[in-house]
Q: What sequence folds into this?
């Protein structure tokens, strides 16, 4: 498939259809698009066409505050767009912080 292509994390309770629409729109003028996460990673990544830079994920320090910065360093010669910064849920503590916003009740741990 030639693209554009967007991959979205499944742990982003704040995502809305408008975020996805904005990302696809940005791919009209950008080579890649990211949805930054509040923890330094990203909840969305997309490319305009079939990946030309297959090494965009090389040497990325995953699950660290440097994940987005490392990926962007691999794409230094490309036009990059950004959609909204959102929180993702990587840990139980992340879920507790977002639970009230999501309308869920989290029982205290014993």
A:
């Amino acid at each position: 498939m030639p693209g554009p292509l967007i991959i979205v994390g499944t742990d982003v309770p704040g995502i809305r259809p408008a975020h996805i629409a904005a990302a696809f729109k940005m791919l009209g003028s950008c080579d890649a698009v990211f949805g930054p996460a509040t923890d330094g990673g990203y909840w969305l990544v997309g490319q305009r066409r079939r990946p030309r830079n297959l090494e965009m994920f090389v040497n990325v320090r995953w699950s660290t505050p440097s994940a987005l910065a490392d990926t962007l360093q691999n794409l230094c010669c490309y036009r990059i767009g950004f959609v909204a910064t959102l929180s993702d849920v990587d840990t139980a503590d992340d879920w507790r912080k977002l639970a009230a916003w999501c309308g869920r009740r989290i029982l205290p741990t014993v």
Summary: The two ends are 50 Å apart (CA to CA).
